[in-house]
Design goal:
Number of helices: 6
Structural class: alpha/beta
CATH class: Alpha Beta
Largest sheet: 11 strands, mixed
Oligomer: single chain
Helix content: 25-40%
Order of helices and strands: EEEEHEEEHEEHEHEHH
Number of strands: 11
Number of domains: 1
CATH topology: Rossmann fold
Length: 290
């Protein structure tokens, strides 16, 4: 058993939390380069939190230009035990209106130009992504969001698109026909990399718009998204505070899904065939098994 140290990936304003103590900033360089920005650490209700601005200071990085490997590696190197992702999304369902918080359960990955694995030639591994989020952390995140006063939907399938452009109407209709619930540009390969780094991952997707499928509604645009994001910001911060309330009095035990030991059966390259240079890089996220 250990104490919780939760990495929070989201907007740079999330760490403006009343009562956050022992606040410090730290820059980390990873074997995969620099993360989106410096890590801001602090304690709330005795729980350690590490904040990482996904898009960098001033939202300077579009989704396809984010160094997702460096972001996850930096949180792992900072000693995080879990990751909570908070992001905006479009709704593909009538009953998920703007302002709704969806605690995700599944993904369909349509990204195409992003480095989506730490493993490569010289050391191969295949982690299971059948259940891409941590069930326990997701339940805690949903409880926290409800306690913060947000309308919450538990479970949902997120269509991860490449971006940075929004969907065509035909694409939006297609994704609805697939049974997707929300659409966004940032949760992949983030969730995949967290699993390779043996970090339990949960995601709250905050609905800002109806994408471009809904008749009678204007197609999604940046001003509309930013307006709803501003409304959601306070509840997102309160959700983080409520999450620390929920875990402050309990020691952390391993995820029931065994995420922290997922690499035990995922590595397929035998030690004698591994590239020493590749192994040295991988120690930052997989040192436990290497």
């Amino acid at each position: 058993m250990t104490r919780w140290k939760i990495g929070i990936i989201g907007g740079s304003g999330l760490y403006d939390l009343p009562g956050l103590e022992e606040v410090s900033s730290r820059s980390i360089e990873t074997p995969w380069g620099s993360p989106s920005g410096a890590l801001t650490s602090g304690q709330l209700n005795g729980v350690e939190l590490v904040f990482l601005p996904r898009h960098g200071p001033g939202h300077r990085l579009p989704p396809h230009a984010i160094n997702y490997r460096a972001n996850i590696a930096a949180l792992k190197m900072a000693g995080c035990t879990d990751i909570l992702s908070i992001s905006a999304c479009g709704s593909l369902r009538e009953d998920l209106p703007p302002g709704r918080f969806v605690v995700l359960g599944q993904y369909i990955d349509r990204t195409k130009a992003r480095a989506n694995s730490f493993f490569n030639a010289g050391c191969a591994a295949h982690v299971s992504m059948a259940d891409p989020v941590c069930h326990r952390l997701s339940a805690l995140a949903a409880d926290a969001a409800e306690a913060a006063g947000a309308p919450v939907t538990r479970g949902g399938t997120y269509l991860a698109m490449e971006g940075p452009q929004f969907s065509t109407r035909a694409e939006s209709a297609l994704y609805r026909s697939w049974g997707c619930d929300v659409i966004g540009m940032t949760n992949m390969p983030e969730a995949r990399l967290a699993r390779e780094a043996e970090l339990p991952y949960a995601a709250i997707a905050m609905v800002t718009d109806y994408d471009s499928w809904k008749e009678g509604e204007a197609a999604v645009d940046v001003p509309a998204v930013l307006a709803v994001m501003k409304q959601n910001a306070g509840r997102a911060r309160e959700t983080i505070a409520r999450l620390t309330d929920l875990v402050s009095d309990r020691l952390r035990t391993p995820s029931p899904q065994g995420i922290e030991t997922g690499l035990d059966t995922a590595l397929v390259t035998p030690p004698e065939a591994r590239d020493p240079e590749r192994v040295e890089r991988l120690k930052a996220i997989a040192g436990r098994v290497l």
